[in-house]
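Re: the 285-residue chain
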Amino acid sequence: MQCQIMLGQSNVAFSGSLLTQINKTTSGRDTAILLICQSNARDKLSVYTIAQEVVTSGTVYQLTGDGNNFTLHIRSIEQQQVDSLNLTFNDAIFKLTVNLTDRYFLFPDTYKRLKAMVGKHQLTALLNVLSDNIGNYPISDVLTFIRIRPQVSRHIRRAFITTKRNQSDLTDDWVCNYVYDRNGYLKQLKVSSGNVIRYAKSVKSVLQNAVAMSTYLNIEDRQITEQKITYFPSRPPSVKWQENVYEPGKDRTTKALISVSSKYLGSLQGVELPVDEVLRILKSK
């Protein structure tokens, strides 16, 4: 199953969707809304986060470059802070390198499709490849949008990723092993260094109307997150999951029930919008 994100129609220049995320914990319930704006050419995307009718953040994503070398620009609208990911393609071995250190070896058909879309500066295929975010890339606010339609068809054969530790200058090198079933659907992803597991994902079932999976994330033994997720890849797509976050240093576990639903908005005025326009869209929908 190749889940693609369809946002907008071919006869509009800019279009958008609203994602509503509801978090339920023992301490209460909170709601966050993401406004996703995208150009029809799929070459520019913005994410606005709204909580309690306040726009708390906004980020713009855009690709530049040509040939085998590209840059993903990530710009914070309110702070004008700019991050970037440098991308290099190697046609001989179907490899994508991110920031000189992270190496993704793709299946040939996936590699060719990805490079063709990046060559047109289209964002979706690239964000799908990076959606597990093992490399701690500055793309966290767009991940809910990308993950609402999970990539479970074969795409990455193997990857080697380096991460920097949060509280020191040390780095860790991770080997990412992907296992697919006979139909080409992802069964398991394991990210490890020796006996240490950083991330694991297991796809339980791939059905026409639902995808079920479980994930495990261990951040330097300071925080361990386990999720049981069910995706409903209909139109509009939605996702629900149970989440347990354990903090060993505090011997504390936080449990949550989280759901995300989506709604297509149609035509918008642009990708970068004034705060007043973001709030107007929210109130009108």
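The helical segments are 108-119, 124-129, 143-147, 275-284.
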